[in-house]
Write a structure and sequence with these properties.
mainly alpha; MetI-like fold; 12 helices; globular
Length: 294
Protein backbone atom coordinates (compact mmCIF):
# COMPACT_ATOMS: atom_id res chain seq x y z
CA UNK A 1 0.00 0.00 0.00
CA UNK A 2 2.88 2.35 0.77
CA UNK A 3 4.44 1.74 -2.67
CA UNK A 4 1.09 2.34 -4.35
CA UNK A 5 0.54 5.55 -2.40
CA UNK A 6 4.05 6.70 -3.26
CA UNK A 7 3.42 5.97 -6.93
CA UNK A 8 0.17 7.91 -6.88
CA UNK A 9 1.88 10.82 -5.14
CA UNK A 10 4.68 10.91 -7.72
CA UNK A 11 2.18 10.73 -10.58
CA UNK A 12 0.11 13.53 -9.03
CA UNK A 13 3.16 15.77 -8.60
CA UNK A 14 4.24 15.11 -12.18
CA UNK A 15 0.80 16.00 -13.55
CA UNK A 16 0.66 19.06 -11.30
CA UNK A 17 4.03 20.23 -12.64
CA UNK A 18 2.87 19.73 -16.25
CA UNK A 19 -0.37 21.66 -15.66
CA UNK A 20 1.42 24.52 -13.90
CA UNK A 21 4.00 24.73 -16.67
CA UNK A 22 1.33 24.74 -19.40
CA UNK A 23 -0.80 27.33 -17.61
CA UNK A 24 2.25 29.54 -17.08
CA UNK A 25 3.17 29.25 -20.76
CA UNK A 26 -0.39 30.04 -21.85
CA UNK A 27 -0.59 33.10 -19.58
CA UNK A 28 2.81 34.36 -20.78
CA UNK A 29 1.51 34.23 -24.37
CA UNK A 30 -2.12 35.29 -23.94
CA UNK A 31 -1.52 38.28 -21.62
CA UNK A 32 0.89 40.20 -23.94
CA UNK A 33 -1.23 39.48 -27.02
CA UNK A 34 -4.42 40.54 -25.24
CA UNK A 35 -2.70 43.67 -23.91
CA UNK A 36 -1.66 44.68 -27.44
CA UNK A 37 -5.22 44.20 -28.71
CA UNK A 38 -6.61 46.36 -25.90
CA UNK A 39 -3.92 48.99 -26.40
CA UNK A 40 -4.76 49.22 -30.09
CA UNK A 41 -8.24 50.62 -29.33
CA UNK A 42 -7.19 53.09 -26.63
CA UNK A 43 -7.03 56.83 -27.05
CA UNK A 44 -3.61 58.39 -26.68
CA UNK A 45 -4.47 60.05 -23.34
CA UNK A 46 -5.24 56.64 -21.77
CA UNK A 47 -1.60 55.52 -22.12
CA UNK A 48 -0.50 58.02 -19.49
CA UNK A 49 -2.48 56.28 -16.76
CA UNK A 50 -2.16 52.69 -15.62
CA UNK A 51 -0.91 50.44 -18.44
CA UNK A 52 -3.29 47.69 -17.27
CA UNK A 53 -6.44 49.82 -17.30
CA UNK A 54 -9.19 48.76 -19.69
CA UNK A 55 -9.99 51.08 -22.60
CA UNK A 56 -12.81 53.51 -21.95
CA UNK A 57 -14.16 52.97 -25.44
CA UNK A 58 -13.32 51.48 -28.80
CA UNK A 59 -11.09 53.88 -30.68
CA UNK A 60 -11.01 52.45 -34.22
CA UNK A 61 -9.41 55.65 -35.48
CA UNK A 62 -6.05 54.11 -34.57
CA UNK A 63 -6.45 51.51 -37.33
CA UNK A 64 -7.65 54.14 -39.79
CA UNK A 65 -4.62 56.29 -39.03
CA UNK A 66 -2.28 53.29 -39.36
CA UNK A 67 -3.74 52.42 -42.77
CA UNK A 68 -3.99 55.98 -44.03
CA UNK A 69 -0.95 57.80 -42.67
CA UNK A 70 1.52 54.92 -42.30
CA UNK A 71 0.60 53.05 -45.52
CA UNK A 72 -0.02 49.84 -43.58
CA UNK A 73 -2.64 48.87 -46.16
CA UNK A 74 -0.02 48.92 -48.95
CA UNK A 75 2.42 47.00 -46.77
CA UNK A 76 -0.29 44.44 -46.00
CA UNK A 77 -0.97 43.89 -49.71
CA UNK A 78 2.78 43.53 -50.37
CA UNK A 79 3.12 40.94 -47.61
CA UNK A 80 0.12 38.97 -48.88
CA UNK A 81 1.51 38.95 -52.42
CA UNK A 82 5.05 37.98 -51.41
CA UNK A 83 3.98 35.34 -48.90
CA UNK A 84 1.37 33.77 -51.21
CA UNK A 85 3.73 33.66 -54.19
CA UNK A 86 6.59 32.29 -52.09
CA UNK A 87 4.38 29.49 -50.74
CA UNK A 88 3.18 28.65 -54.25
CA UNK A 89 6.73 28.45 -55.64
CA UNK A 90 7.88 26.47 -52.63
CA UNK A 91 5.15 23.83 -52.93
CA UNK A 92 5.56 23.50 -56.71
CA UNK A 93 9.26 22.74 -56.29
CA UNK A 94 9.38 20.97 -52.91
CA UNK A 95 6.52 18.47 -53.29
CA UNK A 96 7.83 16.67 -56.41
CA UNK A 97 11.42 16.89 -55.13
CA UNK A 98 10.52 15.40 -51.75
CA UNK A 99 8.45 12.65 -53.34
CA UNK A 100 11.21 11.62 -55.77
CA UNK A 101 13.98 11.71 -53.15
CA UNK A 102 11.96 9.66 -50.68
CA UNK A 103 10.42 7.04 -52.98
CA UNK A 104 13.04 6.49 -55.72
CA UNK A 105 16.71 5.53 -55.63
CA UNK A 106 18.86 6.63 -58.54
CA UNK A 107 22.43 7.60 -59.24
CA UNK A 108 23.25 10.71 -57.23
CA UNK A 109 20.20 10.51 -54.95
CA UNK A 110 22.34 10.16 -51.83
CA UNK A 111 24.39 13.20 -52.79
CA UNK A 112 21.24 15.25 -53.34
CA UNK A 113 19.91 14.05 -49.99
CA UNK A 114 23.13 15.17 -48.27
CA UNK A 115 23.08 18.46 -50.18
CA UNK A 116 19.53 19.18 -48.99
CA UNK A 117 20.39 18.30 -45.39
CA UNK A 118 23.43 20.57 -45.53
CA UNK A 119 21.09 23.44 -46.41
CA UNK A 120 19.39 23.03 -43.03
CA UNK A 121 22.49 24.45 -41.33
CA UNK A 122 22.63 27.64 -43.39
CA UNK A 123 21.23 30.64 -41.53
CA UNK A 124 19.63 33.10 -43.93
CA UNK A 125 20.89 36.04 -41.86
CA UNK A 126 24.48 35.09 -42.75
CA UNK A 127 23.93 35.17 -46.51
CA UNK A 128 21.86 38.36 -46.81
CA UNK A 129 24.85 40.48 -47.82
CA UNK A 130 26.07 38.07 -50.56
CA UNK A 131 22.53 37.82 -51.93
CA UNK A 132 22.18 41.60 -51.95
CA UNK A 133 25.57 42.14 -53.64
CA UNK A 134 24.75 39.52 -56.27
CA UNK A 135 21.38 41.09 -57.08
CA UNK A 136 22.94 44.56 -57.04
CA UNK A 137 25.52 43.49 -59.64
CA UNK A 138 22.81 41.99 -61.81
CA UNK A 139 20.70 45.13 -61.42
CA UNK A 140 23.66 47.36 -62.30
CA UNK A 141 24.37 45.36 -65.45
CA UNK A 142 20.71 45.39 -66.43
CA UNK A 143 20.50 49.15 -65.91
CA UNK A 144 23.56 49.64 -68.10
CA UNK A 145 21.93 47.67 -70.93
CA UNK A 146 18.24 48.58 -70.58
CA UNK A 147 18.21 51.63 -68.34
CA UNK A 148 16.03 50.00 -65.68
CA UNK A 149 16.63 47.50 -62.88
CA UNK A 150 14.67 44.38 -62.06
CA UNK A 151 16.20 42.36 -59.23
CA UNK A 152 15.94 44.83 -56.34
CA UNK A 153 12.65 46.15 -54.96
CA UNK A 154 10.84 43.36 -56.80
CA UNK A 155 8.20 41.35 -54.94
CA UNK A 156 8.57 38.36 -57.28
CA UNK A 157 12.33 38.16 -56.67
CA UNK A 158 11.81 38.45 -52.92
CA UNK A 159 9.23 35.64 -53.03
CA UNK A 160 11.63 33.51 -55.07
CA UNK A 161 14.41 34.03 -52.51
CA UNK A 162 12.04 33.22 -49.65
CA UNK A 163 11.06 29.97 -51.35
CA UNK A 164 14.68 29.10 -52.14
CA UNK A 165 15.85 29.59 -48.56
CA UNK A 166 12.97 27.46 -47.23
CA UNK A 167 13.52 24.56 -49.66
CA UNK A 168 15.96 22.49 -47.51
CA UNK A 169 13.68 22.37 -44.47
CA UNK A 170 10.55 21.79 -46.54
CA UNK A 171 12.03 19.01 -48.68
CA UNK A 172 13.52 17.33 -45.61
CA UNK A 173 10.23 17.42 -43.69
CA UNK A 174 8.10 16.26 -46.61
CA UNK A 175 10.49 13.50 -47.66
CA UNK A 176 10.61 12.21 -44.08
CA UNK A 177 6.81 11.97 -44.13
CA UNK A 178 6.69 10.35 -47.59
CA UNK A 179 9.09 7.67 -46.36
CA UNK A 180 6.55 6.58 -43.72
CA UNK A 181 3.81 5.97 -46.31
CA UNK A 182 3.41 2.31 -47.35
CA UNK A 183 4.25 1.34 -50.94
CA UNK A 184 1.02 -0.69 -51.29
CA UNK A 185 -0.86 2.36 -52.55
CA UNK A 186 1.70 3.03 -55.29
CA UNK A 187 1.64 -0.61 -56.37
CA UNK A 188 -2.16 -0.59 -56.54
CA UNK A 189 -2.09 2.63 -58.60
CA UNK A 190 0.52 1.09 -60.93
CA UNK A 191 -1.65 -2.00 -61.45
CA UNK A 192 -4.56 0.31 -62.37
CA UNK A 193 -2.37 1.89 -65.03
CA UNK A 194 -1.48 5.15 -63.27
CA UNK A 195 1.86 6.73 -64.15
CA UNK A 196 4.32 8.39 -61.80
CA UNK A 197 2.72 11.85 -62.02
CA UNK A 198 -0.82 10.61 -61.58
CA UNK A 199 0.24 8.43 -58.65
CA UNK A 200 1.94 11.38 -56.98
CA UNK A 201 -0.92 13.84 -57.45
CA UNK A 202 -3.87 11.48 -56.99
CA UNK A 203 -2.57 9.10 -54.31
CA UNK A 204 0.51 10.29 -52.44
CA UNK A 205 -0.14 14.02 -52.09
CA UNK A 206 -3.65 13.57 -50.59
CA UNK A 207 -2.16 11.12 -48.09
CA UNK A 208 0.53 13.65 -47.21
CA UNK A 209 -1.99 16.46 -46.63
CA UNK A 210 -1.30 16.74 -42.85
CA UNK A 211 2.41 17.18 -43.48
CA UNK A 212 1.72 19.71 -46.25
CA UNK A 213 -0.45 21.74 -43.87
CA UNK A 214 2.38 21.84 -41.33
CA UNK A 215 4.81 22.98 -44.03
CA UNK A 216 2.44 25.70 -45.23
CA UNK A 217 1.81 26.98 -41.71
CA UNK A 218 5.46 27.07 -40.63
CA UNK A 219 6.63 28.70 -43.84
CA UNK A 220 3.75 31.18 -43.78
CA UNK A 221 4.91 32.35 -40.36
CA UNK A 222 8.51 32.45 -41.59
CA UNK A 223 7.72 34.51 -44.69
CA UNK A 224 5.12 36.74 -43.05
CA UNK A 225 7.40 37.79 -40.18
CA UNK A 226 10.70 37.89 -42.12
CA UNK A 227 12.46 41.21 -41.73
CA UNK A 228 16.14 41.19 -42.74
CA UNK A 229 15.76 40.10 -46.37
CA UNK A 230 12.73 42.36 -46.87
CA UNK A 231 14.59 45.35 -45.44
CA UNK A 232 17.70 44.70 -47.55
CA UNK A 233 16.17 43.75 -50.89
CA UNK A 234 13.16 46.09 -50.88
CA UNK A 235 14.59 49.60 -50.42
CA UNK A 236 11.80 51.26 -52.41
CA UNK A 237 8.06 51.55 -51.97
CA UNK A 238 7.25 47.82 -51.92
CA UNK A 239 7.93 47.28 -48.24
CA UNK A 240 6.42 44.35 -46.36
CA UNK A 241 4.53 44.56 -43.08
CA UNK A 242 7.45 43.92 -40.66
CA UNK A 243 9.52 46.67 -42.29
CA UNK A 244 6.55 49.03 -42.43
CA UNK A 245 5.72 48.25 -38.80
CA UNK A 246 9.21 49.23 -37.68
CA UNK A 247 8.92 52.52 -39.54
CA UNK A 248 5.50 53.10 -38.00
CA UNK A 249 6.78 52.32 -34.50
CA UNK A 250 9.69 54.73 -34.90
CA UNK A 251 7.46 57.54 -36.18
CA UNK A 252 4.65 57.10 -33.65
CA UNK A 253 7.01 56.64 -30.69
CA UNK A 254 8.78 59.87 -31.61
CA UNK A 255 5.40 61.61 -31.81
CA UNK A 256 4.20 59.94 -28.56
CA UNK A 257 1.22 58.59 -30.48
CA UNK A 258 0.92 55.03 -29.22
CA UNK A 259 -2.52 53.97 -30.43
CA UNK A 260 -1.66 53.64 -34.16
CA UNK A 261 1.59 51.91 -33.21
CA UNK A 262 -0.25 49.12 -31.40
CA UNK A 263 -2.87 49.04 -34.16
CA UNK A 264 -0.03 48.30 -36.59
CA UNK A 265 1.09 45.42 -34.37
CA UNK A 266 -2.42 43.98 -34.44
CA UNK A 267 -2.49 44.24 -38.25
CA UNK A 268 0.69 42.14 -38.37
CA UNK A 269 -0.45 39.57 -35.77
CA UNK A 270 -4.08 39.10 -36.85
CA UNK A 271 -3.49 36.99 -40.02
CA UNK A 272 -1.24 34.55 -38.15
CA UNK A 273 -3.77 34.19 -35.31
CA UNK A 274 -6.61 33.58 -37.77
CA UNK A 275 -4.53 30.98 -39.61
CA UNK A 276 -3.65 29.19 -36.37
CA UNK A 277 -7.29 29.07 -35.31
CA UNK A 278 -8.38 27.83 -38.76
CA UNK A 279 -5.87 24.97 -39.01
CA UNK A 280 -5.41 24.11 -35.34
CA UNK A 281 -7.20 20.75 -35.61
CA UNK A 282 -5.42 19.76 -38.81
CA UNK A 283 -2.11 20.89 -37.35
CA UNK A 284 -2.56 18.57 -34.38
CA UNK A 285 -3.48 15.71 -36.72
CA UNK A 286 -0.43 16.40 -38.84
CA UNK A 287 1.86 16.12 -35.85
CA UNK A 288 0.37 12.83 -34.64
CA UNK A 289 -0.91 10.98 -37.71
CA UNK A 290 1.10 8.11 -39.06
CA UNK A 291 1.57 6.97 -42.61
CA UNK A 292 -0.87 4.07 -42.30
CA UNK A 293 -3.68 6.46 -41.45
CA UNK A 294 -3.80 7.82 -44.98
Amino acid sequence: MKKKAKGLSTDFLYKLFIYVALITLAVSIIVPVGWVFLASIKENAEFYGSPWSLPKGIHFENFIEAFRDANMGDYLINSIMVTGLALLILLIVALPAAYVLSRFHFKGSRFIHSFVKAGLFINVSYIVVPIFLMLLDWDTGLRAMMGDGFFLNNRVILALIYASTALPFTIYLLSSYFETLPSDFEEAASIDGAGYFKTMFSVMLPMARPSIIIVVLFNFLLFWNEYILALTLMPGEHKTLPVGLLNLMAAERAAANYGPMYAGMVIVMLPTLILFIAVQKRLTQGMTVGGLKG
